Amino acid sequence: MAPPRGNPNPTGFDPAKFAASSGAPAKDPWARYEQWRYTGPFSRWNRFKGSFPGLGIATVAFAVYCGYEYLFLKDDHAHGAKGDSHH
To answer: Can you tell me where the transmembrane regions are (predicted)?
Structure first.
């Protein structure tokens, strides 16, 4: 026996048509209460900025140390050079 054609619901109610006709509400009544989550100290940038405290200072300090080491802490001894007879 073949399934019946047409609307399988005997009442004629089509949930897809109902969902399509409802749409989104014109104004969200809770929008004002949710707005504080995304502004001021809770904005995306401010939340990200506090994720790595001290990273900027540490990066600058490391770069200064690498520059100091490169310029002033050169090794004048040729360790490992062939023919080195003195110690």
So the answer is: 52-73
Token pair for 76: 């004048």
- pLDDT, tens digit, 9 for 90 and up, residues 19-33: 777 776 677 777 778
Q: Which of 31, 29, 49 is nearest to 40 (CA)?
A: 49
Q: Is the pTM of this model over 0.70?
A: no
Q: Where in the chain are the domains?
A: 43-73
Query: How many Å from the N-terminal Cα to the C-terminal Cα in the chain?
Result: 102
